[in-house]
């Protein structure tokens, strides 16, 4: 039983990539059905007043307001029961906080500061979806409504006032960003995927997701090209036609396993003569390289190989890292301001009970 | 400074452009993007003040204020800013506002710092001939377009350098894409050539009726400038000169065009309207 004089407590309990190895994380995430069942069960827990669940591939976290520490323990047990997670193991990986630390953590999570890929954008939408889902289930009340809404504002502030989201940090996204600096709008660009390397496929997918105009696939075996083209909803091109039709494309993603360069200086020079004011962008992800190094000397040809892209990604990552301390200071300031607003309603400490 | 004089408003406009220059430079040094909203406000306020100053001068000289080097520099800066307000907002070019502020601040403040350039205000230099006034204003407006083209060309060269040398962070991160810059430059080149051609045609229609009224050297210089730009455009259309080479040509041509201003400044011979010494500080 909780004392009527003690205000309810704001709390967060959960596990994330920071404490949980991938083998365990695979079991952590809740399916939509299990999540619905958990909410149902939680609604019957005495002492639990509000609840929102952030459920992504890298974290499962329960944000709530409780009048009783036992309610939080019961919530954990319910989660373990539904997910089939061993409670003893969960106890070793779970993190718990209450009071202003909850808000600090939520703002940091929504900002991307706690993400595996620092500053990534997706988490903001995921936290927002979690909150909207909780709103639809009416499991959030005056405290969590205020906390989440203010946390979103805080996260936006952190993301815009620091450089933690600046620059891409994966090779595929760096390549797409680079294409943007050459072509601007990608919706009219024609992308040719040359070869069937894994990283090439990822890059082609990144181009598709960013709205590239068209995608063509060429592989040394036409059957493989057709297979990939079907997978991407693209067009297949016989490999031997690539050199003659180079001028028809804007971006070449090269990832063949050829033992020598397949894009020659002469072929690119000829292609550029047929499109004098349109640049050609080569993303050479193959080892050994698919594009002759001399191609880079042509004025309107821009060649980036795997090392170049990795270097840019690493520089971006370092630039983001350099902003972490400043971002955490901003998170702290925002969290304190939010806490002052919600403390009268949820200022109790679970640990003290 | 007397607010009733046009130079007061020219100084204010110049100060606004200079503020834009300071804002942009600070952002470049901090390697952070400047606020586009703030830059646009600064440029728009400068432009409004500049327009008012030119209006006051226009009322005083009873015509388009392009009668001495000071007025020509001011009018060219105003033209470049006018174009930026169209092009910059359409293409969302973050650094172009900075460069426009730089160009306009340089032209505005330099001409203000040279009292000799504004020693005399020639009144009614076009003798009430609206077509000649139109010809001169259009010619100078085309120079504003070429000014903006040279800025775009500088941005193009910077972007090309950054892509070739794989330096994409810091200030280079704020540059527009190379294809966008090429397209903007191309459109500005077409616009500038068309405006100057129209201006020359209007001027020629008056000149053929009064062949002795215009200095042949001035005609030769103006036509040469137009021919040079038109040739650059023709070669760009044929794909013979483009990219870096075209950008360098455009920068060099604008330098030549600026130098030619001393030659093509409207002059009225002794038979023309009287000049009045400037009474303003």
Keywords:
heterodimer; A: 353 residues; alpha/beta; Beta Polymerase, domain 2; Rossmann fold; 2 domains; six-stranded parallel β-sheet; four-stranded antiparallel β-sheet; B: 281 residues; mainly alpha; two-stranded antiparallel ribbon; 2 strands; disordered C terminus
Structure description:
The complex is a heterodimer of chains A (353) and B (281). Chain A is elongated, with a radius of gyration of 26 Å. Chain A has 13 helices and 10 strands. The relative contact order of chain A is 0.13. The longest helix of chain A is centred in the last third of the chain and has 23 residues, at 324-346. Chain A has 2 domains: 9-164 and 323-346, 2-Layer Sandwich (Beta Polymerase, domain 2); 171-313, NAD(P)-binding Rossmann-like Domain (Rossmann fold), CATH 3.40.50. In chain A, 49% of the residues lie in helices and 15% in strands. Chain B has a two-stranded antiparallel ribbon with strand order 1-2. Chain B has one domain (6-277). By secondary structure, chain B is mainly alpha-helical. The radius of gyration of chain B is 19 Å and the shape is flat. Chain B starts with 5 loop residues before the first helix and ends with a strand.
The sequence of SSEs of chain A as H and E is EHHEEHHEHHHHEHEHEEHEEHH
Distance between the termini of chain A: 10 Å
- Give the CATH class of the largest domain in chain A: Alpha Beta
The percent range for helix content of chain A is 40-55%
In whole angstroms, the N-to-C terminal distance of chain B is 8 Å
- Counting structural domains of chain A, the number is 2
Number of strands of chain A: 10
Unreliable stretches of chain B (pLDDT < 50, length at least 5) are: 268-281
At CATH level 3, the topology of the largest domain in chain A is Beta Polymerase, domain 2
- Unreliable spans of chain A are none
If interface size is counted as residues with C-beta under 8 Å from the partner's C-beta, which chains form the largest one? A-B, 24 and 22 residues
User: If strands are numbered along the chain, what order do they take across the biggest sheet of chain A?
Assistant: 7-6-5-8-9-10
Query: What is the oligomer described by this structure?
Result: heterodimer
| Sheet of most strands of chain A | 6 strands, parallel
Shape category of chain B? flat
The CATH architecture of the largest domain in chain A would be: 2-Layer Sandwich
Q: What would CATH call the homologous superfamily of the largest domain in chain A?
A: Glutamyl-tRNA reductase, N-terminal domain
- Tally the helices of chain A: what do you get? 13
Give the C-alpha Rg of chain B: 19 Å
| Sequence of strands across the biggest β-sheet of chain B | 1-2
**Secondary-structure-derived class of chain A:** alpha/beta
